[in-house]
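Input record (one chain):
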Amino acid sequence: MRRRPAFTLIATTAAAALVAAACSNDTQAASGGDGDSGDVAGTVTFWTYPIGIADSVGWWEPHVEDFQQEYPDVEVEVVMQAFSNREEALVTAITGNNAPDVVYFNPDFIPQYAEEGILLPLDDLRDDWDDFYDSALDANRWEDTLYGAPLLMQMQTSYCNTEAMAAAGVQTCPTTWDELREAAPKFVDAGYYATEYSGVSTLNHNFYVYLWQAGGEVLSEDLQSAAFNSPEGLEALEFIKEMVDNGWVPEQPLSVTEPFEQTAVGKAQVGYVPGAQLISTREIVDPAIIQTAPPMTHKEQVASGSVGAWSIFNTTDAPEAAQAWVRYLSDEEFIRTFNGETGYLPPRESIDDLFQDDPQIAEGMEYLDKVRVGVMHPQARQIIDAIRPHIQAVLLEGVDPQTALDAAEQDVNDLLARG
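The corresponding structure, as predicted from the sequence alone:
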């Protein structure tokens, strides 16, 4: 049975406004394969975001020029968007009948836009999908249809600050909750924070990770009700509260987003960092003091992470040109270049030698099967918005964890019921 989302009214209205245009393009856009480049023409509006050093239109220019060697009649308009207010910008564009042709998505975007019927299926785009990790493809499927061409896999790498370890007398980097509990007071006594918790980032990288490590789930198996208000959810939230109450974490990240170089992690003032993107981290933090560690384990070993992929809105006026551009972006050569420069992990199994000279990053390849990307549900981001204030109330206002979970469960179930 299809699950209809309780998408925001403005987004539903936008999708409805685009249905007629989308249907007119579906037949033409559904074709895959390499095609004849000489017959492909049009303008592709391409929305991307700052991803590592690929953070400017200038970074993309040589790749567009390379693409145009084969597709000289395709113009690619690169639009660099900001991650902040990302969904609002998309909704505004859709509402104004000005959606991009190609956009960078993370997995939790896929269900809501696919369910609204405004994404182009990509199963036939390539004939070598079998070279991509199943986990990368599964993160971009909704109801057995592929809607995202993977570009990168991300695992938030855990590490210890070796200078902090030496000062605190911590012999080994923590890999379990209990080991972190044991090490935390030692880090604090030595003048460091034990770890960090970001209250303003996506729950995919904070509360959910502790919930999964405790053996819990965000939603029920049928995705119809909240499941986090459980003994596992309470254990996870109480553990996070324990960190805050004991002063093991810096206060600022609980409620404020700071430039990385101004954070305690960026200043190398944290003993154990539960997750980091190493390429960008090592631009600020001395790589010599970074000792990478396996993902944290409690009842389960889970790392936070994501898959970045390219999706095509089926409202595009140039579907074949958009497909050609996404094929280029998912070719082995481009993926090797992109991930080699940005430090993300490649979604293609054939690219297994990319970081052979960089063991800190290469180690992440061993734990890709431990990565969880979030909740695959059309309302994934609304669910996060419903839960986050209650988590914050515990950490910043002293609300009882069970009371907060009860209230969050009610809000999420009301949200799901409206769907």
